[in-house]
């Protein structure tokens, strides 16, 4: 290997280390969420999410639960941008302490593509959520998200509206199932 190639490799490695050590976790968490979803900047995942990072989101599709690292984020963004091509996430609050960053955010978009089997409705939906990122060595190593997926399901017609006849039927059916489950577990 030539001396110049070795120097270039060493310079690139040193630049990566400096860049990683100078990451502002609060600003980086905001960028991952806003630029990732709003602009489709998936390369941010490779830059700012550790390869073995763990994602905790109860709304995550089962087929993605075994994935780790940047791939989870990339597939999630791709899924929601396909379903809501005009999606816009806005971070409303950022709280950073120790190795964690908490983001309170809201999102809006028009349901123009299929979302996990839900046919496009043309409905403009909005949700709120909170995400927590844990950082180590300039990268997210673990992330937790909670957001109003029931609210979104209602807006898209996948769950009955609050107070509706459909909701009352659903609650009555749940009571029947709960009795069956209690009976089954008492045996």
The helical percent reads: 40-55%
The number of domains is 2
* CATH architecture label name of the largest domain: Roll
Strand content: 25-35%
Largest sheet: number of strands, sense, barrel closure: 5 strands, mixed
Kindly report the average pLDDT value.
90
Low-pLDDT ranges: 1-8, 11-20
Number of helices: 6
Estimate the global geometry from the Cα principal axes: globular
Strand order of the largest sheet: 1-5-4-3-2
Q: Secondary-structure element sequence?
A: HHHEHEEEEHH
CATH C-level class of the largest domain: Alpha Beta
CATH fold title of the largest domain: Nuclear Transport Factor 2, Chain: A
> What is the structural class?
alpha+beta
Q: Tell me the quaternary state.
A: single chain
Distance between the termini: 72 Å
Radius of gyration based on Cα positions: 21 Å
The count of DSSP E runs of length 2 or more, i.e. the number of strands, is 5
């Amino acid at each position: 290997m030539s001396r110049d190639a070795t120097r270039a490799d060493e310079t690139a490695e040193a630049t990566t280390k400096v860049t990683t050590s100078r990451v502002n976790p609060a600003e980086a968490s905001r960028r991952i969420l806003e630029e990732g979803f709003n602009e489709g900047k998936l390369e941010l995942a490779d830059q700012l999410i550790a390869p073995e990072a763990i994602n905790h989101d109860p709304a995550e599709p089962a087929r993605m639960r075994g994935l780790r690292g940047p791939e989870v984020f990339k597939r999630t963004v791709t899924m929601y941008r396909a379903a809501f091509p005009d999606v816009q996430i806005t971070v409303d609050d950022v709280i950073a302490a120790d190795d964690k960053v908490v983001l309170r955010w809201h999102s809006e978009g028009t349901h123009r593509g299929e979302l996990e089997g839900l046919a496009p409705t043309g409905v403009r939906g909005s949700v709120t959520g909170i995400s927590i990122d844990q950082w180590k060595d300039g990268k997210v190593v673990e992330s937790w998200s909670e957001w109003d997926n029931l609210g979104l399901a209602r807006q898209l017609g996948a769950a009955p509206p609050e107070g509706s006849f459909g909701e009352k039927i659903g609650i009555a059916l749940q009571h029947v199932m709960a009795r069956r489950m209690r009976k089954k577990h008492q045996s």
